[in-house]
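User: Hey, my collaborator sent me this sequence without any context and asked if I could get a structure. I don't really work with proteins. Can you help?
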Amino acid sequence: MATFVLIHGAGDAGWYWHLVEAELRARRFDTVAPDLPCDDDTAGLADYADAVAAAVGGRTDLIVVGQSLGGFTAPLVSERVTGAVTLIVLVAPMIPAPGEAPADYWANTGWDREERKQHDDLFYQDVAPELAAEAWKRGRDQSEARLREPSPLKAWPDVPTRVLACRDDRLLPVGFVRRVARERLGITPDEIDGGHTPALSRPRELADRLEGYADER
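Assistant: No problem. I've predicted the 3D structure and written it out in structure-token form, which is a compact way to encode the shape of the chain:
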């Protein structure tokens, strides 16, 4: 069976994926959900990818899933574990261009020009309150010290890629993700109900989608 390599977003931890991991393991998939060194001022995207590759170890038949800022790390993992990645899935993602610094993403994609409503909660509006509180507790400060450095990504990997947008996402609205996925990857995203953190609000539905992608490979 395939191994799902689950990459969290900015200022988060591998714990974000724990409900999805339980679902996938019940379906006999292996999972890896490492903590990235996102609170370390000395760590950049290459270090994030190295942390994921170290957690993967010698596993093969990998499905790499990147959430939000994890979209910048996901394609780099494919370079670290040559030939082992069979699918990349981007969930509620930032979708990097080669050489793009994460800090430049917002202006480069026109995110700051998108029309959208103002909300106090951009992340957990549809997550159970006690689970959202735990997520805030486990969150870490995202270091921005090296987010202005160009990504080491030279070109998108020659690996099948899927994009899954969240219909109620307040941070990365579905229309915005549709446009960027089309412009940068030539992909029309699939869609799922929920806000920016579906691994907490809809873990079973997200696991269903990931299992479906595994079966379609």
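In plain terms: The longest helix spans residues 203-216. You can pass these tokens on to your collaborator as they are.
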